[in-house]
Structure formats: C-alpha cells, structure tokens
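User: Sequence recovery, please. Input:
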C-alpha cells in the first residue's frame, strides 16, 4: 500500500490518500511517481517476462549462479514483487525449465531434423547457452534439485522425444519401441556432445573435436535411416 499526503499552501495536512499495488513496482529511478494497481492481463505479462528472463539467466549461470534479486532486476521489477507471482525460487525454476524445454521441442518440430542437429551440435550453440537448449545447459543442475524441477525436466524431455514423431510419423502408424529407442540415443548423443564440449576450455582442440565427431556421426546415422 502507498500513502499520498495532501498539503495546502500553508503547509497544513488536508488529507491522506491510500493506494494499493500488486508488488510489480518499477525499479528505483523510474520516471513514474504514481503506482497504480496493475490489471490481471498486465500481471500475467509480468509473470511471463520473469519466467523468460529466468529461463535465460538459469541457462547462462546455472540455478545457483543467479539470485532472486538479480533475476527480478534483470526482468525490470523490484525484489519484493517476486512473491506476488511465485511461492519460492524452486517454483520459478520448474516453470522456467518447462518454458525452455517447450521452446526446444517446438524448434525441433518446425525444423528439418538434420538441419536442427547441425545447429544443435555446433560451436555456436555451445558458446551461447543463454539462448540454447535447456537440457544441455541445466540437466546436470536439475539432478540436484527438488522433485518439482526434475518432474518439469522429465515432462520436457518426453515432449522433445515425441517432437519428431508428431512431425514425421503418419497418423495411422504407431510408434515402435525401436523408433523411440533410436530417438533417445540421438538425444543423449547430441546433448552429451554439447555438455562435454562446454566442459573443455573454449579454445581447446578437444572442445571442437567432440562436436565435429558427434555431429558427423549423428548426420550419417540420420541419412542412413532416412528411408525408414
């Protein structure tokens, strides 16, 4: 709640106006001097912006590498507004993971699979984790997080596995265990290649070698399986 004091020309207090706010205050130095209650639509937009910002920062720095205050500042809000949207940082981690994983699955559906893999297992992807795949950036961190975060990853991985099937599989055909197993191996190899490469110094020969070898193997395998 905010309080506005009304004073006349003689300095006498004439009245007090109280205003309620939602917690999404602009940061210090913002030109606004009056804070009005945000609409439901604006609150939803603010929440989405926080989730998107968190998704990027978590991929860049890891879950332990960014605090709530820094995250909210990056999104353009005050620290106090966080708890108007989320019960805890863990809640935001789970939602941000779901958001990032859904975006990856959508990208897989909208792209040709060989082209998608060529970009995925590349130095460009490796060097830009903030705009890259949530699995490659955060799977190791997720293994040490609460069950809600792991559940978000499990759901996102499942969605990613089904992405090629939704795009390429004829409606009348059912998925076989072998088809699913091939996609799991493909995903594990692509994600593992990026993770291993990132663990090496950026300018090391091994970092690039891991990507080159795995990308060539993946594309050759996709080419040989294309008729099926």
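Assistant: Recovered sequence (228 residues):
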């Amino acid at each position: 709640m905010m309080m506005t004091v009304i004073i006349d020309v003689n300095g006498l207090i004439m009245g007090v106006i109280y205003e309620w706010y939602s917690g999404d205050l602009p940061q210090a130095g913002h030109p606004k001097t009056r804070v009005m209650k945000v609409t439901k639509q604006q609150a939803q937009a603010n929440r989405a912006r926080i989730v998107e910002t968190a998704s990027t920062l978590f991929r860049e720095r890891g879950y332990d590498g960014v605090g709530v205050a820094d995250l909210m500042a990056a999104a353009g809000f005050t620290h106090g507004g966080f708890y108007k949207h989320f019960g805890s940082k863990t809640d935001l981690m789970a939602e941000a993971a779901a958001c990032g994983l859904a975006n990856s699955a959508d990208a897989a559906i909208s792209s040709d699979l060989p082209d998608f893999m060529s970009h995925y297992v590349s130095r460009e992807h490796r060097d830009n984790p903030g705009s890259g795949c949530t699995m490659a950036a955060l799977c190791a961190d997720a293994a040490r997080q609460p069950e809600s975060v792991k559940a978000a990853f499990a759901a996102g991985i499942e969605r990613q596995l089904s992405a090629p099937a939704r795009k390429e599989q004829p409606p009348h055909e059912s998925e076989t265990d072998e088809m699913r197993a091939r996609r799991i191996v493909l995903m594990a190899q692509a994600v593992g290649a990026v993770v291993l490469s990132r663990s090496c110094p950026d300018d090391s020969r091994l970092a690039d070698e891991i990507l080159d070898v795995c990308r060539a193997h993946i594309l050759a395998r996709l080419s040989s399986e294309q008729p099926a």
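The two ends are 64 Å apart (CA to CA).
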